[in-house]
Amino acid sequence: RGVVDEKGKCPVGDIRVRSIAKLPNADERWKSPKEGWIKINVDGAYMESSREASIGVVIRDSSGSVLLTAWKFISDAGSAEEVLACKEGLTLAAEWTASPSILESDCANIIKYLHHSERQRSASAFTIQEALEEARKLSSVVFLHTGREFNLVAHTLAQLARRLSHSAVWCNRFPFCVEQLVARDVNSHAS
Question: Mean of the pLDDT values across residues 75-97?
């Protein structure tokens, strides 16, 4: 029941129920960006035993409409999946929109490193610099930490990439596995 196996798989039904159960009210859900801005939510997953990683990205506008979803499988990866997710989200945003952006991740350390890259000495330092180069292509970027419960669409996309060992980018649409999560976020925004 909800147990992740060596391939990173677990029953989908348990994930949805458990995740939704964590959210007591609409005030504690995904928050849309202000008018004219986009929000890039990213997440990474890493399985040390197989050295496989995956990332998930969702880009939405101020109405909560999905502009882009992406998921990427990375074989023989290191453990820098969260910073790779940030870089991928910023790259896609720079390629597909000129709007000012908010990048949200549930990894507080990566957000801290993006704010203070000069203090960063980890093995991810080069990838952080690449992410910041992508950020400079956008008119404005704000880096924010968010809780996993506010980042479920990106998290689920990262899990999708890992389960399928597959990568994709979809414009103006999203896979079925996140449909209820997107609807919940939009409905909480509307209320």
Answer: 89
